[in-house]
């Protein structure tokens, strides 16, 4: 069962990752088909499991500053920066719609 | 021969007694790394810093104050662990050039014990894969491809066909670490294990691969794949060495809130382990389709070994085993979708030149930085997390996860101490065979015997068992109860002593070992 183009487009926008080609789309279809086997299992009355350590209390520490002050270290790995700021291109601009985007999904 | 006795060389005591110095040891390993470059096991060799560390270690030995058993011991670390001042790439374009500003806790612990960090090992990109073939630096070659044992058994189809096309994979995703240990370039290596990524290559490369209980060892600094399943893995040439490394790594880390707070006591394994009072479970579902008859026979032989030693060996059932890989597929891709969101080019890693908007820059960066496998998993994961799918896939998988974990609880609760299973379905396949199928198909096939232990958070270990008809290593897996590593490793050690797995006969190793390991057939450190 193929996945609707609207969903594929939606996924590309959510993930900010592209399908690239027909193989990429087929990869998703196969992944869904594989995952569908889960529905063979009867899970009535079964609680979802988040973590194998669910029976233990999560460790909390005191709200004390014990380390930090390493802005210089951290900025070293950023490509674009100004003083102590990471520089990003303008925000609040949505990705172009499917028709205007350069994506394999165009014309699907 | 197959049952050659293996002498344990205690390089630690050699260091203590001055038979060899840390710098000599380090230099030998670095030279061996150079002459085994064709294996492509290392992404980065930190020659300068390693030699400095070796020098410091030497000073300590001269003063008679070594830090411990690990002082001066050369180790390697999988390239998905942060190592301060050293590039950490995860074998991806996304992190090429990324110099870690800090050490992962496990790396720091090893360095604090005086271990010498030789370099970072190769893997599948972002640890996604079961072959160590899908990283940007190319595939890792299994050292056994070049062993006398394998060459003797392989019949080239034509005169022109040589080892170039016959080489076999290491398995993955910690293939570089497994190859590094297997080829004697280091004494221990760190891997990671989310679905079998330490045990699988350990089996194919003939080394010990330990997956500790989830929560025992800190994940701080291990670039995450699946937060609820990832664990650092330990690769060594013998079980005793794995116990030593475990001892130096385990314990609560305030920087990783998923590590348990119980006090961990490092242990030494008994020199003459006794298995006669144990109950060994043989899960019938692990007789999976595709299991080679060779491995089936070894598994059966192993069960007999335990029986003859007086242990109770019984067949048990883990009914949801075959759903483990499907469950993993959903949970893994979902967590990956979340974990990979941090790679946007802004703070570290690759950044695209695209500058029109934040979103388009992120999209272009990720388009350029991730390979097909990673992108595929991100997209699948996002699909399963969509509102309309969340209940049917993600929550459903979490419920199945509980059923899988409960299967183990039931069996261990019924008096079984340890489970004995195969680690892989077959011995290592040639690279040209392996790449015929895509990554997801391969992972689904290869992780089938190892994945459930990650689902349930249990400790598990691969012990090299014998050579296959093709002259390649085959291992068996032991799965233990949560936080019962001592019992698990005791059983593993007993088994290791019984099977006497042969040493790899590798030309390069022989050449470099002369003078240092002259009387030894194998080199462990503990």
TrEMBL record, chain A:
Gene: Gatc
Molecular functions per Gene Ontology: transferase activity
Protein name (record): GATC amidotransferase
Top-level division of the source organism's lineage: Eukaryota
A Gene Ontology cellular-component term: glutamyl-tRNA(Gln) amidotransferase complex
A biological process from GO: regulation of translational fidelity
PANTHER family: GLUTAMYL-TRNA(GLN) AMIDOTRANSFERASE SUBUNIT C, MITOCHONDRIAL
InterPro entries reported for this sequence: Asp/Glu-ADT_sf_sub_c, GatC
Organism: Cepphus grylle (Black guillemot)
The entry's keywords: Transferase
From TrEMBL, chain B:
InterPro entries reported for this sequence: Amidase, Amidase_dom, AS_sf, GatA
UniProt GO BP: glutaminyl-tRNAGln biosynthesis via transamidation; mitochondrial translation
GO CC annotation terms, alphabetical: glutamyl-tRNA(Gln) amidotransferase complex; mitochondrion
Alphabetized GO MF terms: ATP binding; glutaminyl-tRNA synthase (glutamine-hydrolyzing) activity; transferase activity
The entry's keywords: ATP-binding, Ligase, Mitochondrion, Nucleotide-binding, Protein biosynthesis, Transferase
Every Amidase domain range: 34-489
Descriptive protein name: GATA amidotransferase
Source organism (scientific name): Uria aalge
Species lineage: Eukaryota, Metazoa, Chordata, Craniata, Vertebrata
UniProt gene name: Qrsl1
């Amino acid at each position: 069962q193929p996945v609707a183009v609207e969903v594929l487009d939606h996924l590309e926008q959510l993930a900010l990752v592209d399908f690239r080609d027909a193989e990429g789309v087929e990869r998703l279809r196969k992944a869904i088909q594989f995952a569908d086997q889960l529905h063979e299992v009867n899970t009535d009355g079964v609680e979802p499991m988040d973590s194998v350590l669910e029976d233990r209390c999560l460790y909390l520490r005191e709200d004390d500053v014990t380390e930090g002050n390493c802005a210089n270290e951290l900025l070293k790995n950023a490509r674009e920066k100004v003083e102590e700021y990471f520089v990003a291109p303008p925000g609040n601009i949505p990705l172009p719609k499917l028709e205007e985007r350069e994506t394999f999904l165009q014309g699907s | 021969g197959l049952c050659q006795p293996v002498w344990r060389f205690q390089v630690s005591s050699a260091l203590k007694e001055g038979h060899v110095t840390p710098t000599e040891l380090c230099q030998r390993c670095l030279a061996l790394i150079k002459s085994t470059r064709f294996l492509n096991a290392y992404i980065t060799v930190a020659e300068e810093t390693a030699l400095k560390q070796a020098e410091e270690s030497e000073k300590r030995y001269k003063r008679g104050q070594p830090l411990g058993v690990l002082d001066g011991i050369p180790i390697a670390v999988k390239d998905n662990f942060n190592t301060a001042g050293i590039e950490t790439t995860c074998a991806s374009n996304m992190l090429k050039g990324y110099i870690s500003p800090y050490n992962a806790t496990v790396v720091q612990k090893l360095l604090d014990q005086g271990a010498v960090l030789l370099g970072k090992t190769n893997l599948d990109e972002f640890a996604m894969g079961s072959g160590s073939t899908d990283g940007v630096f190319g595939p890792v070659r299994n050292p056994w491809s070049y062993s006398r044992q394998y060459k003797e058994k392989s019949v080239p189809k034509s005169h022109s066909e040589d080892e170039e096309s016959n080489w076999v994979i290491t398995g993955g995703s910690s293939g570089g670490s497994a190859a590094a240990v297997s080829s004697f370039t280091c004494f221990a290596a760190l891997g990671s294990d989310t679905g079998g990524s330490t045990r699988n290559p350990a089996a194919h490369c003939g080394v010990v691969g330990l997956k500790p209980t989830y929560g025992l060892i800190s994940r701080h600094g291990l670039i995450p794949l699946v937060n609820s399943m990832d664990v650092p893995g330990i690769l060594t040439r013998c079980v005793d060495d794995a116990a030593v490394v475990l001892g130096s790594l385990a314990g609560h880390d305030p920087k990783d809130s998923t590590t348990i707070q119980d006090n961990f006591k490092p242990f030494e394994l008994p020199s003459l382990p006794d298995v006669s009072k144990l109950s060994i479970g043989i899960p019938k579902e692990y007789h999976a389709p595709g299991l080679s008859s060779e491995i089936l026979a070894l598994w059966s032989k192993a069960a007999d070994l335990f029986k003859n030693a007086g242990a109770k060996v019984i067949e048990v059932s883990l009914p949801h085993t075959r759903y483990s890989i499907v469950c993993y597929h959903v949970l893994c891709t979902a967590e990956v979708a979340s974990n990979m969101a941090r790679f946007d080019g802004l703070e570290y890693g690759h950044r695209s030149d695209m500058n029109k908007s934040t979103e388009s820059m992120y999209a272009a960066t990720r388009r350029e930085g991730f390979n097909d496998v990673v992108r595929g998993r991100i997209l699948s994961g996002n699909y399963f997390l969509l509102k309309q799918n969340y209940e049917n896939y993600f929550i459903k998988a979490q419920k199945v996860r509980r059923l899988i974990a409960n299967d183990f609880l039931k069996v261990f609760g019924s008096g079984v101490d340890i489970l004995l299973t195969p680690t892989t379905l077959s011995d290592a396949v040639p690279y040209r065979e392996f790449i015929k199928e895509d990554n997801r198909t391969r992972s689904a096939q290869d992780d089938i015997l190892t994945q459930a232990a990650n689902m349930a958070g249990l400790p598990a270990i691969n012990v090299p068992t014998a050579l296959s008809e093709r002259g390649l290593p085959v291992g068996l897996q032991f799965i233990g109860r949560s936080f019962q590593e001592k019992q698990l490793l005791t059983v593993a050690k007993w088994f290791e002593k019984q099977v006497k797995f042969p040493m790899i006969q590798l030309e390069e190793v022989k050449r470099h070992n002369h003078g240092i390991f002259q009387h030894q057939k194998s080199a462990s450190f503990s």
